[in-house]
Amino acid sequence: MQKPPLDIGYYRHYKGPIYLVEGLARHSETEEWVVVYRPCYGDQELWVRPFTMFTEMVEWEGKAVPRFAFIGTQLEEV
């Protein structure tokens, strides 16, 4: 399973908060790709989410939108 393409940088969740994607990692048992990211608010602890879920489209206010949308590589761009 080849590493999927994903820009490193800042993403906006469809509900508004901003997150910093630090990279991709693999699940040790399933070899599934997961996105390693942290919120730009609160405790800023690391989180992981399956790549397929991170990059999927969701329905929000009657529209299909990305769960996380890339917004830049620098926080100043945000």
From TrEMBL:
Domain DUF1653 span(s) in chain numbering: 9-69
One matching Pfam family: DUF1653
Protein name as it appears in the record: DUF1653 domain-containing protein
Lineage, top ranks: Bacteria, Pseudomonadati, Pseudomonadota, Gammaproteobacteria, Alteromonadales
